[in-house]
Design goal:
This protein is an alpha/beta fold. 35% of the residues lie in helices and 14% in strands. It contains 5 helices and 9 strands, in the order H-E-H-E-E-E-E-E-H-E-H-E-H-E. It has a 5-stranded parallel sheet with strand order 1-8-7-2-6, sandwiched between helices. The radius of gyration is 18 Å and the shape is globular.
Length: 185
């Protein structure tokens, strides 16, 4: 039997990974929604949802078991019903639906309705339809959106904590995201 030694660099990498996991485990799951500081470490899990890693997210997407839902935030123009303002192209998981800005801790009635009506439309009202929520790594928007979907009664909610960052870092294909418009009042 051949033994392999990690060496200093390998040991440092292993310890950094363990520290990263310990840091995620140390982030408490809030009772409600995260209300600010959205780009910060997230908990290791979300009650009522399945937390998935990149390999699991890929398998779910490639099998068609889930609809990937990108919740990366965007700003809207100041015009009523105005378009989303895209500062640059945003790569997303292929086949995703981009519902921007639905991951804030508190949603306006308009954005709450936008989220609910789009999920209902996309799932044809099937609360058993698999949904995969993501944003970026260390982003609470996807955690909040997945929690909201669980509270709406969706039963197969998956939360991909590493988001578009983890997908791209794994060298998986992406497509340019196109946000779903908000209807004019």
């Amino acid at each position: 039997m051949r033994r392999r030694w990690l060496g200093a660099a390998g040991l440092a990498f292993l310890l950094a990974g363990l520290a990263g996991n310990a840091a995620a485990d140390a982030v408490p799951v809030p009772d409600g929604y995260r209300m600010g500081d959205y780009r910060s470490p997230t908990p290791a899990s979300l009650p009522g949802a399945e937390t998935v890693d990149t390999a699991q997210a890929r398998a779910l997407v490639e099998s068609g078991a889930v609809l990937p839902v990108n919740v990366m935030k965007l700003d809207r123009s100041t015009l009523p019903g105005g378009p989303w303002l895209l500062p640059k192209p945003f790569p997303q998981i292929p086949g995703s639906v981009w519902l921007p800005s639905v991951g804030f801790g508190s949603l306006t009635p308009e954005m709450e309705g936008y989220f609910r009506s789009n999920l209902d439309r996309l799932t044809a009202g099937d609360r058993g339809r698999g949904l995969l929520f993501y944003c970026l790594a260390d982003c609470w928007a996807s955690w909040n959106a997945a929690k909201r979907a669980v509270e709406m009664g969706y039963r197969r909610v998956h939360w991909y904590r590493d988001g578009a960052d983890g997908w791209a870092e794994a060298g998986l294909p992406t497509e340019e995201g196109k946000p779903v418009p908000v209807a004019a009042p």
